[in-house]
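tool_call predict_complex ligand=zinc ion
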Amino acid sequence: MRAAFVLGLAFASIIASIPLPADADAGSLTGKVIALDAGHGGADSGASGFGLLEKDVNLDTVLRARDLLEQDGATVVLTRGCDCTVTLAERVAIANAALADRFVSVHANACGCGPANGTETYYWSGLAATSTSAHLAGALQGQLLQLLGTRDRGVKTADLYTLHHTSMSAAHVELGFLDNATDNAKLADPAMRQQAARAILFGLQEHFGIAPHDPVVGFAVSVLQPADQAWAKGNVAARGAANQASLHWMRFLVDGSVERWVTPAPHAWTWDTASFADGARVLRVEAENATGVRGSSDITVNVDNTPPVTTPSVTGARGANGWFLGDVNAHLEAMDAGIGVAQTELAVDGATLAPGVDATLGGDGMHSLAFRSTDQLGNAEALQGVDVAIDSTPPGLALLQPAEGTLYAGGLALLPGLPATVVAGEMAVCVDAWDATSGIDRVELRVDGALRGMGIAGCLPWRAGDEALGPHDLSVVAFDVAGNAAEQHQQVVTVPTTTTGVMATLDGLGPP
Ligand SMILES: [Zn+2]
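tool_result ok
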């Protein structure tokens, strides 16, 4: 025994991280179903002496024993809980139907023979002295003698109906003799009947291999921290408590899994909730007291280690290539699957973050909107950003050539006497175009609204000889990358390719 005990200590630190086996409740009557049978009752008073009725002594003792057994974890079934008549067959039926583990019948004696006194306990005469019922009877008898201080009349056998017909091991105690003055004085004393009840508890404990002990009344385990239904993120200070100083152990469980043993005190644990999924987690504190009784308390903790997600939407006049053509309104929507969004912050163009969900980005150029949301636990989203490009200004455009009033004589060699504004051959239409923000995308050359050529800037060739004779609207249209446009118009006249024709056309147009 001693060697085994020392070995056990050596391994204590190793097994401390392993959940105890399920039979660790062996230190109490937890799980046991005990049928208590108060003899007689109702019309049947049983024995009597000095005005004391057996049925009353039996019932009071049984009710006291019931309380003690239940406090030690047992489930108790009473064959009668009132001053009422119950037949022996009914008593047996109640115990058998409850599938009780043990049956204990409580009686008191009388013989009318004067000097008889003392305590005796019976088991069924059909059983051996090595039977479980005999063992139970012996344990009860020994504890009764010790606590009542009565004379030992021994463990006996009898073919009593209840002992015979109950399907579980059973014993029948006779507490003492009501018609004996000494025994009667004891059984008339509530304090002594409490001792008789304790003896029944102790006897059952002894019978089940448990050191006899008073039940620890009101053994309560609680979770002091965090509060039930609390929200939690990151590391959470968890604390358990029991209303007794002496504990075998205390431990924390999350969702039924043992996470930490906190024996000895302090019964505290820093719970890293981030290693558990978001959502409702059951935090349990379990403890076992010095007599092997267990208690536990559960709370629900709502774990949320996830920040909100913010989605931006930007609205405004959209141009080409992702550019906006004017002010842009930005709106932020934040969603949080856990405790909820506390606030959304934003900043335009590098300013300091400030609470808000709406912003206007205005003015030509590149803009940035930075934002993030934080939930009510302080889980902050990483800084998000969206870029917005605005160009609301059309390009600058200058038509450099041809000059106003230019005539075109397609393919004609320059002749002496013609005005300098008459151009021969292929004409170059030259423009200057510029755009400060998105840049020039293209310049289009149009004649009477029809596209004739395209370029970026500089000079575009125009074969005017392909056009019909007469005046035409020559236009250049510059587009910036954002899609803004600027245009300029010039009237040109195409003329016949002979000197005569040129002169005639010039006459027709009047002096240049
Ligand atoms: Zn009786």
